[in-house]
Amino acid sequence: MNAQQIKIMLELQDAMNTKVNANWKQQGYEWYRAIWVECAELLDHYGWKWWKKQSPDTEQVALELIDIWHFGLSIQLQPGASLEEIIAKIQNELVIATDEQDFRLDLEKFAAATLGDRQFHLGLFARLMAGIDMSFEQLYRGYVGKNVLNFFRQDHGYKDGSYRKHWHDGREDNEHLVEAVQSLDTTRPEFKDELYAALVKRYSM
């Protein structure tokens, strides 16, 4: 697990939260509440209804886990610990493995723990990643991609309504994002800047 990649994610989360509210750390936002609501949405994508045929949509589950990671990083950044301490904590506790056969039971343990103390439980989150065979690299790629796209939207008129979600070829920005990510080396420290530049190029075509 690359410390540089963890650092990039923490810096991106702080920057995005600061864009929304410069004093976000003093606001006491209920990040835990956003997490358990996302857990319910995630469960719908995985499937839980015994009275109808359902197959797990693991692609959507992965996207929901990435959303939860945003809120989880915000909780880690909240108390004022140093970046080095948070990075070490993530490296120690994010052990991607589970002995639970039923993903839904791991999810309920995670949601219960979140509601219990309003914190982000890295170890239980890692079990969810393991439950859908999600690697740290996939988490990193998905997280940075979503963040960079959010920044790009903000910078190109998302607030005033002038942003175009469908680009020159009629395809949505999310599709362009996936292609742009695949064309880049995610291990490079400059990955997020190169991704932003790639989106600028595609948007202006």
Largest sheet: none
The mean pLDDT is 93
- Binned, the helix content reads 55-70%
**Count of individual beta strands:** 0
Portion in strands: under 5%
Order of helices and strands: HHHHHHHHH
**Gap between N and C termini, in Å?**
36 Å
Tell me the structural class: mainly alpha
Overall 3D form: globular
Radius of gyration from CA coordinates? 18 Å
Give the number of helices. 9
Low-confidence stretches: none
Structure explained in plain terms:
The chain is built from nine helices and no strands. The protein is mainly alpha-helical and 205 residues long. The mean pLDDT is 93. It is globular, with a radius of gyration of 18 Å. The chain has helices at residues 3-20, 31-46, 58-77, 83-93, 103-117, 122-131, 136-155, 173-182, 191-203. This is Dimeric dUTPase (All-alpha-NTP-PPase superfamily).
